[in-house]
## 1
Amino acid sequence: MTVPADHSAALPAVVVSSRAARRLAGGFMWVYSNEIEKRDEPDEPVYWCRFVHERRTVATGYFNRHSLIAGRAVARGDVGDLNRLLDDRLLWAFSQRLPLEKGRSARLVFSEADLLPGLVVDFFPPDAVIQSNTAGMDLMLTRLTERLPVLIERVFQVSLRGLVLRCDSAVRRLEAVESFRKVVCGDPAVLARAEVYEDGVRYAADLVAGQKTGFFLDQRVNRLNFGALVREMTSARVLDLFCYSGGWGLRALKAGVAHVAFVDESRDALGLVERGLAANGVVPERAGLHHGDVFDFLARREDSYDAVVADPPAFVKSRKNLPQAVKAYQKLNRLAWRRLKPGGVLFACSCSHHLAESDFLGLLAEAVAKEHGLAHVIYRGGPAEDHPVLLSMPETSYLKCMGIRKLAAV
């Protein structure tokens, strides 16, 4: 479907229930399939529309008849020009990231939290990555690829060298839409060997085929706090589990720790760590790279560490598998605890939005108790400031980072 440029009255109508209308009016941006009462029937399964209740347009957004989250709102009421709305939304989101230190990477658009559901834009100067997670946002990709370079240059005074479309997240299967990647502009070989600068540390990134958009920007503040903590532990040995490109371990090495063991089941990820070690001038003796399953590594090794980071991918894919995920988090953190020296620090993370912070803290407490241990909570963190939480959408709050110190037996 071609998105109309000017008259929102030309958009098909989707009639929603009174409950959905109240939630949309209150800032909730999703409409579930069982809240749809009636709709116009364009030929396309996905289209931009007006969400209507009692003959009044409650919101404008897009509809996908294949998804349980059938509607996603982008604006309250009618919208006269969707292209202008997109520009305005992007400029507003960019303005929330100012001032941005020259050369620093940032998430410029964070989906619902920036009122653009389904869209993520990560900025790795001089490159950028667009991630579309919904079929509805796919309809705007042509406009996005045209306007994003113009607006980034206007706001950040950076001419984009490369722009990548990463429409390959697992959530797209729930939208019944195909996954794909595309280099819009730039040299694919250069984009696959990008470098991310973060507060004195250089990280290797593959913006074309790496995980997510190529680098995990959301942990920036937590990594900085971890670095400040281990800076006082110059002879420390650190264990970085599910290390990917070495975000935590490279920060610790920059802070001056003696040695970091990096563990990941992906050889490609460890290749990124190797590049990061070289970029930061780390001598080989200060790092060990271990390829394999993290749980197997923890179970078979008996080494002890002054600091351990457990930052796994999301174990909770949906609410129905929450009990199994809780068991997995407990097992991981029990095994990590066993590798920790008395007085050492465990940074435990979860990026599962279905798992509340209180429940995560509770399962950590249970894990420590089962190991007959005692711990102080020394740090609580969430996502970096460029990953805002929209109050009306609790789903935008997902990342938990807990630092606990292992107390000696008393």
## 2
Amino acid sequence: MTPSATSGTGEVGVERHGDVAVVRLANPGKHNALTVRMWRLVPEVFAGLATDSSVRVVVLTGAGPSFCAGSDINDLAEHHVSDLPSAAETAIATCPKAVVAAVQGYCLGGGLQLAAACDLRIAAVGSTFGVPPARLGIVYPLTATRRLLSMVGPAATKYLIFTGDRIDETRALHIGLVDEVVAADALWQRTMAVATQIAGLSQLTIQATKQIVDALVAGDEVAGTVDRWTRRAAAGPDVHEGVASFLARRPPRFTWEADPLPGLAQPHEDR
């Protein structure tokens, strides 16, 4: 299990709640603005969670009243020309586990980049979203621009970047930037309810779907990936448990884990 990182400037901590791992961005006094150290820690933390078989779902959130106010302005000159933000974003997006963002307060710039890399986003009333590169004279990373485009479309992507406007949770929901909006005092409970629900379902189905959907969005060939996942499902325990639990009218107890089957190629090899 990847431990919390507590030394230096800013933290990327990990807490466990049963099958759910909570990754918490923390930079006290700066609304969790991401320092260079924090950008570097995000891929390390997610790499550990990706290979931890006891983790079924990951929740990404911020400490205190905000999710993340973007990149720490003191480090902007270094990381806006580096691959650190894209590496952190990619680590989240390619994590085989379902990743749910719990967003409150500010979700700006690099913070929005990380939230967009999650599979689902649940936002609290009072959240604020924005993409400020035009206010800083920098270029938004290619990976982040492509991801934003796939989520909200070209017009909304251009609007957010061209104007640098901050939008509220209602408009974010309207354009597809978030999936659900809840009262601020219900955010944690609702996020954990969704994460726990996902954790109790077939991880084979979830991991296969994540890989297939992401490949379709990227325009990749997916027929081979679908075929391999289908054969994996047929050889694994979850389909039998799903049928048995349905017939017995009891909750399923899915046990599939992402260990490669003998003689069967990993489903991601054609990506």
## 3
Amino acid sequence: MTEFLQFLIEHGYVVIFAWVALDQAGLPLPTLPLLLAAGALAGTGELSLLGIFVVCTLATVPIDLFWFWLGRLRGVRVLHLLCILSLEPDYCVRDTEALFKKLGPLSVVLAKFVPGLQTLAPPMSGLTGMSMLVFFILDLIGTLAWVSSIVLVGFYFHTELELIAQKAAEAGLIAGLFLAGIIAAYFTYKVVTQQRFLRSLRMRRLTPEYVRQRIAAGDDFHILDLRHDYDFDAFPHLLPGALRVPMESIDRHNKSIPKDSDIVLYCS
């Protein structure tokens, strides 16, 4: 921790800009400890509060405008591209969609406080047809609110953070390795679980031609269209006899889902 603070002092705003920009670009980097450390250094006079705010804004808003433009140009494809970086891509898209439906434009501001969603909010805004000027204003407000909520904590509690850094340094390499081991084990578990799930899906995947043949033969089975609303809006057509059941509201349609025959799930 001490070495990190020293590195941040030496390279200052360049490190903050690069770190925040990569996080906004979609890489899962933890910006919370960085901004806390930057705020603490501002509290000791090593960095400028105004400089931190300016650098974070320059590292965030232009990239958000780029994602906004891509969302307007490419739609849902951009969301799925960004969600590939997530360990749970389906929930990634679903949560973003649910947030926008519930909060509307305000979600651009609040998404800054939710890891992962801050990257998905700009393309979702472009996809929903939000004005670029409105998005720019909301994104700027969200960025400043997000940065200030973390940096000012570090600024006002820099003494306490210095003590924590000293305790962490005293714990030494063993404590660091233990923490790193817990984090690595968690991500390994998530990756293995996801791969097992995807492998099970591949084993049960049906080709479009096979489904078409079963429809033509009049076989007794049902098709559930589970596509997200934005996917459906982009191609608003159902397969013959399919039942439209959005994934995010599948629990509410439980009674309407047939239980007496085979079920084919259509989700992309």
## 4
Amino acid sequence: MSLLVVENPGQLTTVQDLGREGFGPLGVSPSGAADPVALRLGNLMVGNEAGAAALEMTIVGGSYTFPTGAGIALAGADFSPTMNGRTLEMWIPHALNPGATVQLGATRAGARCYLCIAGGIQVDSFLGSASTHLLSGLGGFGGRELHKGDVLQIGLPTKALWRKKISPGVLHAVKPGKVLRVTDGPQAEWFSEETRQTFLQSSFRVSEESNRTGLRLEGPALKPLNEVEMISEGVPLGAIQITPSGQAIILFVEQQTTGGYPKIANVIGADLYSVGQLRPRDEIRFERVSMQEARTLWIAQQRLLNSGKQLFA
């Protein structure tokens, strides 16, 4: 049996896979990787299924020892990884000898880095997923972030480690952006044309209060035409709701599943991974696209991620 020992858990490290879809009617948001593109590519590098459970590290990485060795890959934001003091390259598999320790510091750019391990991290499944849902304390490793001294089990690798890195062209195509493409929200017409243009033409700063539940944005106040209270309704991942004070909030992977604030727009599926790499104080803008454009962009991204060996240099 292979193990991973947490020497230092960093700022916020959890076990995540691609989440648990379809349980919104039960009040359970999907959770899962904040940057599912990085998770998928990281898993493919070590021969796992794309949605295998891995460690999601936030802002500051931590330190992890592998008593019996392991095959690993690091994907997402660059946290200056090293192994026993030697620099580890991102986006390429590494074979670790027994007793090796991987150390990661603070992010250089982006918010989250994924430590993917051949065989995946083995934890009990909750509603068909290994992902940690912090708000409810369910899933993952005890439903919580990792602590110093935690010992996690690693599954058996299914393939030999393939020493090929993700190609530069693919990394360029999936580089997280600061311009988020959006479609109109269900209450877009509640806002004047002037307010909608302000939303699209202004810069917003990610607030320090942001987390996996939602990203609060600092920027111009966006008020609806009339102060009418709406009945709570289901809300999708990436919805941008406007509070009574006019503040915009991007609902994220641990969002509430219903809400009573009007939604001016929704981040498209192909750009949700970029939301997962936003840090407090990052400046972002929004660009409106049609539903057809959003669908075309999503299909193109999925084709790229499912293109097999073409992903590698």
